[in-house]
Amino acid sequence: MCARCLTLATREQHIRRERATSNICTNHSLCALAVTVYLSMMGAQGLRELAERNVELAHYAAERLASGGIKPRFAGPFFNEFVVEVNNAAKALEAAQRRGVLAGIALSTDYPELADGLLICVTETNQPEDIDVLREALTEV
To answer: Which CATH number goes with the domain that contains 84?
Structure first.
């Protein structure tokens, strides 16, 4: 008896085009291509500099938030994502959205024990001014 696993196979190759209801594999490939082009343009040194910038910004954000009374949930090391404790994650996200800031992801849906947790990600696309707006929005609640 022989079993086959098609875990990594694209869905569309098994469905006739006219019956396909999803283009997720096409989108996945497009994202993979975009990342490949971006990384090839960055080069090894550029990627290292980008990673260092992300770490600096994320730690700057954690420090700025902590100075406003928003403490990290975990004490361990982090790269560019970290969890903070907020009184009401849903209200905090709404307050940030009113200011035009995507503040993070409330963790209560997936992790009920982290009902007060907000996952924040900081990358090279964020500026220190953005982090200050985030701090203001989250301390508003």
So the answer is: 3.90.1150.10
